[in-house]
Amino acid sequence: MPAGVTWPQYLKMLSATIVSMLAGAEVVHQYYKPDLSVPETPPKPGELKTELLGLQPKKGNPPSS
């Protein structure tokens, strides 16, 4: 018996864990709506630009010293 529980209890916990993991992944994908498309030609090195929007200074606010 794995983890000191009976097989039916173990299988119930395992199935509940897997179902909750899949449900959580679905919720995250529905919330963030990721772009899962694959371009036909990959970008050349240095061509792909990514930005961290949370780390950019806000416009109109002077930098604090």
Average of the residue pLDDT scores: 82
Over all CA atoms, what is the radius of gyration?
23 Å
Element-by-element helix/strand order: H
Report the sheet with the most strands, covering strand number, pairing sense and barrel closure. Answer: none
Low-confidence segments, given as residue ranges, are none
Describe the structure in your own words.
Residues 37-65 are annotated as: Disordered. It is a single-pass membrane protein. It is found in: Mitochondrion inner membrane. InterPro entries: BRAWNIN. Pfam families: DUF4516. By secondary structure, this protein is an all-alpha fold. The chain is 40% helix and 0% strand. The chain has one helix at 7-32. The longest helix has 26 residues, at 7-32. It is elongated and about 60 Å long. The mean pLDDT is 82.
Question: Mind sketching the topology for me?
Answer:
Elements: H1 7-32
Overview features:
65 residues; mitochondrion inner membrane; transmembrane; mainly alpha; signal
